[in-house]
Write a structure and sequence with these properties.
Mean pLDDT: 94
Distance between the termini: 40 Å
Low-confidence stretches: none
Number of strands: 11
Strand content: over 45%
Structural class: mainly beta
Helix content: under 10%
Length: 127
């Protein structure tokens, strides 16, 4: 079992940047496909980005493509989400999630496909 802890959220002005981190303990992240999701008040949780260690594939929601980058550091057992050109619509609680790698990459954009979740880190973008 893996424990996931997010950090790096905060308040930023529109056009600014933040880098979120998801530190894993208990097992190596290479045992998982990793994803970032977000949930704004009154809205459903939505997919943001995912990374599959096998083949190094990354996946992005259309709303963040070209602005956000997901990456991982195996030595630190940490996944990152670099967020640039932030706008108020990006305001949400951001979660990282892990899916056991043997279960494959199907449905990586769906929250129900993930086995483990962090507690979330708040991102607020002011206009």
């Amino acid at each position: 079992q893996v424990q996931l802890v997010e950090s790096g959220g905060g308040l930023v002005q529109a056009g600014g940047s933040l880098r979120l981190s998801c530190a894993a303990s208990g097992r190596t992240l290479r045992s998982y496909h990793m994803g970032w999701f977000r949930q704004a008040p009154g809205k459903e949780r939505e997919f943001v980005a995912a990374i599959s260690w096998s083949g190094g594939r990354t996946y992005y929601a259309d709303s963040v493509k070209g602005r956000f980058t997901i990456s991982g550091d195996n030595a630190k057992n940490t996944v990152f989400l670099q967020m640039n050109s932030l706008n108020p619509e990006d305001t949400a609680l951001y979660y990282c999630a892990g899916r056991l790698s043997y279960r494959g990459t199907t449905y990586l954009t769906e929250s129900y496909a993930y086995d483990y979740w962090g507690q979330g880190t708040q991102v607020t973008v002011s206009s």
